Amino acid sequence: MKQIFAEKAPAAIGPYCHAVVHGDMVFCSGQIPLDPKTMTIVGATIEEQTAQVMKNIETVLSEVGTTLNKIVKTTIFLDTMDDFMGMNTVYEDCLNGHKPARSAFEVGRLPKDALIEIECIAVIE
Fold first, then answer.
1. Is residue 26 within 8 Å of 121, Cβ to Cβ?
2. CB–CB of 123/37 below 8 Å?
3. Which segments of the chain does DSSP mark as H helices, in order?
4. How far is the C-alpha of 76 from the C-alpha of 59, rounded, in Å?
């Protein structure tokens, strides 16, 4: 197993790494919509925050030589399911037709009061 700390991604806000690589699989920690430079939440809407989360995931995946179209599973945590449709539109656009397995949940609260957090599992090919 190899721990990944992506230099261009937002720093972890707890005792964890951005991802763990095991064999040809990469297990990404949840990403919230943090700006990597300022470490502040980007956007006030679910659409803006989802776009930033997907950028952060893309940054982590690129650190290990893979891309968004190699994601096999995502888990999405939403502050409210009322944001599901807005999130879904941006999520789908970011994946350009790729449709990994997915779960989505409403949770009580997310770190830094973000509206969304996404974690994923991808392959390295």
1. yes
2. no
3. 46-63, 84-95
4. 18
What's the CATH superfamily of 2-123?
Answer: RutC-like (3.30.1330.40)
DSSP 14-46: SS--SEEEETTEEEEEEE-SB-TTT-SB--SSH
Q: Identify the CA nearest to 125 among candidates 85, 66, 71.
A: 66
DSSP, collapsed to helix, strand or coil, labels residue 125 as coil
Reported pTM:
0.97
Question: In the chain, where are the structural domains located?
Answer: 2-123
CA gap 102, 106 in Å, rounded: 14
Torsion angle in degrees (nearest 10) through CA of 15, 1, 9, 94 = -120
Confidence grade of residue 125 (pLDDT, cut at 50, 70, 90): confident
Quick one: pLDDT at residue 36? 97
Instruction: Compute φ and ψ for 69, nearest 5 degrees.
Output: -80, 5
